[in-house]
Structure prediction request, 182 residues.
Amino acid sequence: MRWWPRAGAWALVALLFSSAFTIFNLLLAALMPLSDFGLFSYGQSLVLLVGVLIATLVLEPTMTVGTRYHDDEQLRYLSFTLVASLAVGLVAALPLAAAFWAVQRDNSFHLLAAAVIVSPVVQSFHVGRRYLYMRERFGFLIALGVVHAALLLAVLLLLWLTGTVSPANALAATGIAGAVPT
Prediction:
């Protein structure tokens, strides 16, 4: 018999580690001039908008349809979902980046190019996490969250130590931290 409050508590612990992105943003705000942080936020808006499209078109159906598959079929379905997430992300990111660039052309090309690549990659991290949540593999989820948080903070430290903190590099760091644990 399952004890649901315990599973919920472990899920919350796993989510705490994924919230490292908020700490990353706060540190970026302290390290960057306001105009650069605004540009990073502009690129991050593109990533979030693509994320909403991927969640709506790919991830939400995964929760509904994917749960009915048996364990032996689940991994194949998840592989399809990962490929679909990357494809939808790339197809959505390109025209959105062009629209974003048309609105804000100053110093935004490298940032939006990074956002096009980062958008689907960051969302692929959520596909794997969704599978682990459905299977209640909280120890693995927590481990991935720790790796994600450590990578975000390590890359930020590296950027700071080398003097290369920039909006595009910071956005690329979020993609790296999302891709590696996936």
User: Anything to note?
Assistant: Helices lie at 4-18, 20-31, 34-65, 71-103, 109-134, 138-162, 167-179.
